[in-house]
Amino acid sequence: MSYRFHLTTVLLILLLATPVAAEPDPRILVELPAPMQAHMLQNMRGHLEVLDRLLLLLAEGRLDAAADLAESELGMSSLEKHGASHMAPFYPQGMQQTGTRMHRSASRFSRIAQEGDVLAAYKSLREITAACTACHAGYRVR
Q1: CB count, 10 Å around CB of 1?
Q2: Is the whole-model pTM more than 0.70?
Q3: What are phi and psi of 74, to 5 degrees?
Q4: Which residues, 6 or more positions from 107, have their beta carbon under 8 angstroms from its beta carbon?
């Protein structure tokens, strides 16, 4: 093999191995006291678990169970359970609005699921996940 081939190979390896500077995170940093941050992250993980359970219930055609779960764990009636009144004052206004949109969407999903139309329920579920996605795209805690 030629010297030129080896040199090209080494340069290519060095180029590929060179770390690329990460772009700065454009999301708004929400600074919370450590216990509140842990509580919020626990809530977010719980929300993901509920979304997973909702998808399973919809796939099984158990719309009444999905409606009950959504309202009790994500809907407007779940706010006290999640400590929303204690947490919200620490969030920027846009984050508060997005969180409220997610909880309202969950209550709306619950009502739609109770009507028994699985396709409409799936479509409504997307409103919940869209609020989650918007919040995570706009805000961070680390």
Answers
A1: 6
A2: yes
A3: -130, -25
A4: 70, 71, 75, 76, 77
Nearest CA to 35 out of 73, 76, 90 is that of: 90
Band of pLDDT at residue 18, cut at 50, 70 and 90? low
Backbone angles phi, psi at 20, to 5 degrees: -95, 135
Go through 88-107 and write b for each residue having 16 or more CB atoms within 10 A of its CB, e for each that does not. eeebeeebbebbebbbebbb
30 Rama class: left (phi>0) / alpha (psi -120 to 50) / beta = beta
Residue that is written with structure tokens 């081939």 in the block? 5
d(CA 2, CA 100): 65
Kindly report, residue by residue over 78-124, the tens digit of the pLDDT: 999 988 888 999 999 999 999 999 999 999 999 999 999 999 999 99
Quick one: DSSP state of residue 25? Answer: P
Residue 127, Cβ density class (10 Å: 0-12 exposed, 13-18 middle, ≥19 buried)? middle
